[in-house]
Amino acid sequence: MAKLPTVREGPHIVITDKQKGVLKGMTLGLTVTVISIGLAISGVLERIAPTATGGPPLRDALRWDALIIACLAINIAAIARHRFFSPDDIDGSGLSRGTATVHQLQSILQNTLEQTVLAMGVHATWASTMPHAWQTAVPVGALLFVIGRILFWRGYAGGAAARSLGFTLTFYPSAAMLVIIAVHLI
Predict the structure, then answer these.
(1) Which residues contact 41 (CB under 8 A, 6 or more apart)?
(2) How far apart are the first and last CA of the chain?
(3) Sequential pLDDT tens for the chain (186 residues)
(4) Which among 116, 162, 163 is positioned nearest to 141, based on CA atoms?
């Protein structure tokens, strides 16, 4: 009779409730991303294709990315509005310590700026390198970005689990499209 190999147990990993909540949001965000990008490149979502204008894909991608820029502008406006009405924050972060509210708004803006740069770079690269029939992925990515940002903004104060779906719907489409671009180019 053959002896079975010994199984060594490592340290037990304990997952907190917050981590479980984040994992749930990540899983849902990944599922929505895979389905959405898959439907976009399969042609099922062809009706919202930026190529319907007959123009160059990069021009059409930039039109859709106006939604992404709008998200960034809304974040900047939220901080400006808050500063105007807050005597503690009106002088700006260079001249004051800032309240908890302005720090939260700055964190959201910083994340939105990072996501904007990534998404627009990926969308421009996609529009310039991917097949014409796959261009619907750009508007799908832009729409998921907007939905993701709204969920991220609304959930931010609730902690990591509350904002995880919003973050993943913003980040995963860009990441998935970047992976697809890399595979396509190789």
Answers:
(1) 133, 134, 136, 137, 180
(2) 49
(3) 556 555 555 567 788 899 999 999 999 999 999 999 999 998 877 766 545 556 788 898 999 999 999 999 999 999 999 999 998 888 887 787 888 999 999 999 999 999 999 999 999 999 999 998 899 999 999 999 999 999 999 999 999 999 999 999 999 999 999 999 999 999
(4) 116
Spatial CB neighbours of 162, under 8 Å, sequence gap ≥ 6: 21, 155, 156
DSSP 72-136: HHHHHHHHHHHHHH-TTTTT-TTTS---HHHHHHHHHHHHHHHHHHHHHHHHHHHHHHS-GGGTT
Residue 169's Cβ-count burial label (10 Å; 0-12, 13-18, 19+) is buried
Q: How many helices (H) and strands (E) does the chain have?
A: 5, 0
Of 79, 85, 69, 60, the closest CA to residue 136 belongs to 60
Q: Which of 34, 24, 32 is nearest to 164 (CA)?
A: 24
What radius of gyration do the chain's Cα atoms show?
Answer: 21
Cα 27-48-175 angle, rounded to 5 deg: 35
